[in-house]
Amino acid sequence: MRIAVVGMGFVGLVTATVLADRGNTVTCIDINEKRIDWLKKGDLYIYEPLLRELLLKNKTRVDFSSDYSNIKGNEVAFICVPTPTVDGRIDLSYVRSAVLSAKSVDSDVIITVKSTVVPGTASALSSHIGRDIVSNPEFLREGNAIDDTIHPNRIVIGGKNSDYLEKVKRIWEFTGAPVILTTNENAELIKYGSNSFLATKISFINEIANLCENIPGTDVATVAQGMGMDHRIGKDFLRAGIGFGGSCLPKDTTALVSYAKERGVELKIIKSAIDVNNERIEHAVEMIKKELGNLNGKNVCVLGISFKEDTNDVRESKSLELINALMSMGAKIQAYDPSVKEVDGVEMVGKIEELTQCDCVVIASEWKEFETNAIYEKSKKVIDLKRVVNIQTHPTVLRIGAYNAKD
Ligand code: UDX
How far apart are alpha carbons 30 and 33 in whole angstroms? Predict the structure, then answer.
């Protein structure tokens, strides 16, 4: 098929690349000309495993442009523009303008919204442009995005026009995933419900982690393992740490709470999940202070800057929040991250082994290479805030969510 993808952020670029790899001809549009120039030259501004290779492999089927008129002639246009949270509410202006632009250049193209939007958005825009819009939320995780796009757990497609729904369904048929055909509103809420539930799971296990730190003989990793073996609970998203960051979970939980509030509904559990998440850095700082005392003038070496492993994305990074808190207390920070090489006010090193003069090594994200390293043996104190360090090879490391953290 001939497909347009509007918005060359993380979701748009991954979607375009996978669709091209499946034999579609893909027109990529972004109003940011600089991004389009980079992409034309093969420069990727995001790090995502396999993305560069897959894009290169399919370059003859992918076109980049900052001109909306290139949507013309495509059968489907996926809208993948950002929906930031501004003052706690979702900002839909980019989606609105992308939909209007797509409609104005081609009144036949099937406009399909992938961006995360609050329920009612697609229907309202459909009425506005006088044409049905399809909702097709994505569930891909950064760091695993290609595989998540090719092997999703489900495909959700919402809308009123059955021909449009069938066409979008056909695009994703190669995944073999179960398909839910439903209303726009259900599709939109499935995305928010999913992200809010995942966020809640993380905050839930982080509360259990706090409890474990106060009960001799307990460790949240084992408790989570035992809980997760119950299929009704599931083992994923029960990793305790410094909370959820990134471009989706913090933004989507906040947007859903305020969307519900405007409708007179208080989402108490999701609000609590946000509150628990907001307390994680203070908790981590207390843990570090317990080991180092006054932080003024202390040298703290931080491993991991991006909001999670396998990405260079620092949006809502809990590690950066931690670093800022430590610096505000007078600590000096040296840091290492496999993909992030520059951070204001922080001395970044190229290899873990180059970290020097640490009063304490703090692990703040889950890159595989942090599981084991000789530096842990040589350092005075090591605090694992993401439960990534191998307990067998490094038993003396202090762990968040374990009684030994307060021992
Ligand atoms: C999330 C959703 O998982 C995905 O379905 C949606 O499409 C976009 O938002 P993403 O933000 O890329 O994906 O990363 P995710 O793997 O969900 O991690 C989010 C944050 O939660 C990270 O900071 C991660 O470190 C943290 N996390 C995740 C935990 O602290 N514990 C866990 O068990 C899982």
Answer: 7
